[in-house]
């Protein structure tokens, strides 16, 4: 594998981030939706919400992640762990894949009341890119707070 991102042989624009994958690379762009501000390369935070329902139903934070696996990964494979940090006694989470899982390759499971995982439940036979939206609703002291993880998953051919 040549790291095109490190040696500069990619064609990503200045607005995009180069992400190296086995045998290639991807140009990714991370934009914050309106009413969010970029607080780091991979994170957006909500500026404000207009009413109680809006606060409940829009994520307080959107974070981008990139994961890289090969087609020969053994399933079921835990690929992502999510939970509040710090976690408190009484916390309770609900995890939902809200986008990107139309073919049913992925699923979620709670490990305990404050930790959940995303796992690959079905073998991906060919190289394929996914963008999953995984929503975590945190129930803490009588209030729900929503967090959104946008997870790029790149499945590449395995090297022999």
UniProtKB/TrEMBL annotation:
Gene behind the chain: Fbln2
Source taxon at top rank: Eukaryota
Annotated InterPro entries: EGF-like_Ca-bd_dom, EGF_Ca-bd_CS, Fibulin_C, NOTCH1_EGF-like
Name of this chain's protein: FBLN2 protein
Database matches in PROSITE patterns: EGF_CA (PS01187)
Pfam families: EGF_CA (PF07645), Fibulin_C (PF22914)
Matches recorded under Gene3D superfamilies: Laminin (2.10.25.10)
Keywords: Calcium, Disulfide bond, EGF-like domain, Glycoprotein, Repeat, Secreted
GO molecular function annotations of the record: calcium ion binding
One cellular component term from this protein's GO annotations in UniProt: extracellular region
Domain spans labelled EGF-like calcium-binding: 1-45
Subcellular location: Secreted
């Amino acid at each position: 594998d040549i790291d095109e991102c490190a040696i500069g042989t990619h064609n990503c624009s200045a607005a995009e981030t180069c992400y190296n994958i086995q045998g290639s690379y991807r140009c990714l762009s991370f934009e914050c939706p309106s009413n969010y501000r970029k607080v780091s390369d991979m994170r957006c935070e909500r500026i404000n919400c207009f009413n109680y329902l809006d606060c409940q139903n829009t994520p307080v934070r959107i974070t981008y992640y990139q994961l890289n696996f090969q087609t020969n990964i053994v399933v079921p494979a835990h690929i992502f762990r999510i939970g509040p940090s710090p976690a408190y006694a009484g916390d309770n989470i609900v995890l939902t894949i809200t986008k990107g899982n139309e073919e049913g390759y992925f699923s979620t499971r709670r490990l305990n009341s404050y930790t959940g995982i995303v796992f690959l439940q079905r073998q991906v036979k060919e190289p394929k890119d996914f963008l999953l939206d995984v929503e975590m609703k945190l129930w803490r002291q009588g209030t729900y707070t929503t967090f959104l993880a946008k997870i790029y998953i790149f499945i590449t051919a395995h090297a022999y």
